[in-house]
C-alpha cells in the first residue's frame, strides 16, 4: 500500500513467521525451467487476480519460456495459497501471484501460517489497481453520500460484498468505517466472480471490489460506481469521485499484484523470472489487456516489490487493532 490512507494514517502488521525459509541450492538459471511451473493464485477463478495471473502465464508460454500454468487456491483469505508457496521447494517451480492480503493477514488472522517477508523471495511488482464501491442500478443508494447516510443512520443494514477477509476491498472499506463511524455488514467471499454475481442477484446491497472485476458491468450500466480508492480520479472512470474528494482527505488504498517465489530460490532464477515478467508487461497486447481491465502497470526490479512488502507490513497493525478487525 502507498502512504496517505486517511487522516489518522494506517500502521501495521508485524507478522510472526511459522514457516522457516529454506536455503536455496546454488545453481545457475541455465535450463530453467526444466519442468512445468505452477503459478498459485489466492483466489477462485474470475476477478482481477485471476486475470493478471493467467495473462502472465499465457505470455510466458507464448514466448517459449517454458510451461507455466495457473493453480487457483482460494480459502482462508488467501492463507492457503500463501502457506502452500511458503512451504514449497525453493527451485522456481512454484510461484505466487500475491495481493495486499499477503501483508495484512498475519495481523488479521490468529495464525496466518507464514511470514510475508521471511518466507518469500520477491520477483516483480507487476501492477496496481484501484477498488470501487458499487451498487446495483436498482440498489439503495445512487451516490456515495446516500450510501454513507444510510450506513450512519442504520448501522449494519447495508450488506457489502468483499472478495475475502484481508482483501483490498475489505481494508478499503474498513478504513472508511474507521475514519467516519459509518457501519455496514461485510460479506466475505473467496474471490473470483461470486461477489458480483450476488450483487447482480440482489443478495447484497453493494460490493467493494477491484475495478477490473466490475469495469464491464459499469460500462454496461448494470452497476453504479459510487466512489473509487485512488487519490485522483481514474482515467477509465473520469466521472466517478474519489473517496478523498467526498469523504476522507488523503485517502488512498490501491491494490497491488506481485510475483513471488519461496524464500531461498536461487538468485539467477529470480533474476530470470524478473526479466521475463518485465518483458511480458512490456508487450503491447498484454499492456492493452491489462490497461483496459483497469490495471496500472508497474514492473521493475525485485527490490521494488521487496520494499513494498516490507513497508506494507507495518502499515496495517494500528488500523486492524484500533478497528477491532479479526477474521476468526
From TrEMBL:
Belongs to the UPF0065 (bug) family. CDD domains: PBP2_Bug27. InterPro entries: BUG, Bug_dom1. Gene3D superfamilies: Bordetella uptake gene, domain 1 (3.40.190.150), Periplasmic binding protein-like II (3.40.190.10). It comes from Muricoccus nepalensis. This is Tripartite tricarboxylate transporter substrate binding protein. It comes from the Bacteria. Pfam families: TctC.
